[in-house]
């Protein structure tokens, strides 16, 4: 079984299905397994065979609708944390769904911010992030201000932009830059600059250990203005260059694997 959390998207309308998938791909940056199916029956069959941490399902689907899907999963002992999508304010359906494991309810057309906020809330409530990924670039501080929550999501999607600044974030959430700067520090306990750098370094570590990308490619992918600057910032934070960090962790991993083989 994969250590990564899994989200299953059940939606019969192709544009909505693709839109939700692309939004979650942008948000998750490869740290979540994303699967899509076209109807409730396919979702049920998939869930019978695979572990699913979060189900995002349309209510109105041919064959087996969203409520029937949740009922069948519960009857089979496969109750799954769920988020519902619908084009109508079907509150009777929503109340029924909540009793079947649904944790949120989103109206179509699905807005990116609403979707990501609902998914993050589900992950936080159900503790879906695996411990091994606790230092990932996806780990965001728990905040209570909706504007700063939107800001954090925006930062995660713009991490590779080397010119990303507080003014860009402020413009995105329609607030004054000076006010956002103060509010950001109050909510996260970090300045915007410190938070951005830490997120970029966390993402860089993932790429150093999980890919064969060259150092300059990782620098570009994580929004550092140059590989030289990336190496400088990384060394200040880790007392190692990115190359040394990669080699050091690989040696530790290889030694750990060798020890397991000897003890087998």
Count every helix, treating DSSP H or I runs of 4 or more residues as helices.
12
Mean pLDDT: 83
Strand order of the largest sheet: 2-1-3-4-5
Catalogue the unreliable spans: 130-138
Number of domains: 2
State the shape. Answer: globular
CATH C-level of the largest domain:
Alpha Beta
User: What's the CATH architecture of the largest domain?
Assistant: 3-Layer(aba) Sandwich
**DSSP strand count:** 5
Major sheet size, sense and barrel closure? 5 strands, parallel
Identify the CATH homologous superfamily of the largest domain. Answer: Response regulator
How many whole angstroms does the radius of gyration measure?
21 Å
Explain what this protein looks like in three dimensions:
- The chain is of the alpha/beta class and 264 residues long.
- The protein has two domains: 6-133, Rossmann fold (3-Layer(aba) Sandwich); 146-247, Orthogonal Bundle (Arc Repressor Mutant, subunit A), CATH 1.10.10.
- Helix content is 56%, strand content 10%.
- The chain is built from twelve helices and five strands.
- It has helices at 14-28, 40-49, 66-75, 91-98, 112-126, 146-157, 166-172, 177-188, 192-210, 215-221, 227-238, 242-263; strands at residues 6-10, 33-37, 54-58, 82-86, 102-107.
- The chain has a five-stranded parallel β-sheet with strand order 2-1-3-4-5, with helices on both faces.
- Helix 2 (40-49) runs parallel beside helix 3 (66-75) and helix 10 (215-221) crosses helix 11 (227-238).
- The two termini are 21 Å apart.
- The model is unreliable at 130-138 (pLDDT under 50).
């Amino acid at each position: 079984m994969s250590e990564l959390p899994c989200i299953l998207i059940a939606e019969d309308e192709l544009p909505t299905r693709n839109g939700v998938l692309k939004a979650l791909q942008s948000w998750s940056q490869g740290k979540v397994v994303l699967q899509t199916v076209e109807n409730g029956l396919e979702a049920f069959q998939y869930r019978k065979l695979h572990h699913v941490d979060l189900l995002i399902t349309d209510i109105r689907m041919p064959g087996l609708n969203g409520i029937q899907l949740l009922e069948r999963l519960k009857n089979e002992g496969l109750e799954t944390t769920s988020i519902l999508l619908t084009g109508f304010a079907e509150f009777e359906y929503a109340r029924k769904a909540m009793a079947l494991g649904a944790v949120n309810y989103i109206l179509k057309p699905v807005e990116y911010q609403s979707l990501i906020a609902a998914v993050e809330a589900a992950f936080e409530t159900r503790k879906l992030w695996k411990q091994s990924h606790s230092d990932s670039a996806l780990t965001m501080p728990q905040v209570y201000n909706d504007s700063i929550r939107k800001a954090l999501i925006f930062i995660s999607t713009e991490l590779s932009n080397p010119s990303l600044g507080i003014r860009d974030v402020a413009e995105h959430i329609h607030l004054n830059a000076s006010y956002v700067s103060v509010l950001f520090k109050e909510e996260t306990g970090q300045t915007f600059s410190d938070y951005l750098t830490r997120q970029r370094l966390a993402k860089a570590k993932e790429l150093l250990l999980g890919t064969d990308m060259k150092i300059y490619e990782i620098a570009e992918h994580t929004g550092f203005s140059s590989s030289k600057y990336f190496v400088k910032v990384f060394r200040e934070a880790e007392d190692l260059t990115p190359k040394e960090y990669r080699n050091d962790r690989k040696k530790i991993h290889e030694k750990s694997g060798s020890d397991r083989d000897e003890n087998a």
